[in-house]
Amino acid sequence: MLYKSSLHKISIQKKMEEIKFNHTIPIQLRFNDFDSLGHVNNSVYFSFYDLGKTAYFNEVMPHAGINSEVGVVIANIQVNFLLPVYPEEKVAVQTAVVGIGHKSFKLLQQLIDIETKEVKCICNTVMVCFDAKSKTTSILPEKWVKAFTDFEGRGDLSKPI
């Protein structure tokens, strides 16, 4: 089993090397982020990634119109914990849109040590455009697609990595 896990880790790291992250936000570690083992508790990473998502959307689409009528919901989220984070470390979340579908897009995020550049954790999230009035999924607005494509500098986002 360790063999499969090691191959999976190598596969993830290789995939991450192909991504250029254009968005990074430093994360302030708080006293209550740490568990009895002295490292960041696994449940806290999701809050870090939410901070990264919020900052990304605010920078990439400040006028694109994410509001209460049409927004996004998380359809799937997967996290791979690679290395622990300790209180003395300085960390940041990097975020990139790596694929765009008809009604959804895929975010790839990683938590890194700012000083050593070590990747501590990786997060894959599928977000779906959602119309709150009709309570149904909706087509991704073209201005969102353009904002993602322009920011990421990749015209091939409809072909996920």
Task: Please provide a brief summary of the model.
It contains three helices and six strands. By secondary structure, the protein is of the alpha+beta class.
Gyration radius, rounded? 17 Å
Fold-level CATH name: Thiol Ester Dehydrase, Chain A
CATH superfamily caption: Hotdog Thioesterase
Low-confidence stretches: none
Count of separate DSSP helical elements: 3
Number of strands: 6
Which structural class best describes the helix and strand composition? alpha+beta
Oligomer: single chain
CATH class: Alpha Beta
Average pLDDT works out at 86
The tally of structural domains comes to 1
Which band does the percent of strand residues land in?
A: 25-35%
| Dominant shape | globular
CATH architecture: Roll
Question: Sheet bearing the most strands, described?
Answer: 6 strands, antiparallel
N/C terminus separation: 27 Å
Helix content, binned percent: 25-40%
Order of helices and strands: HEHEEEEEH
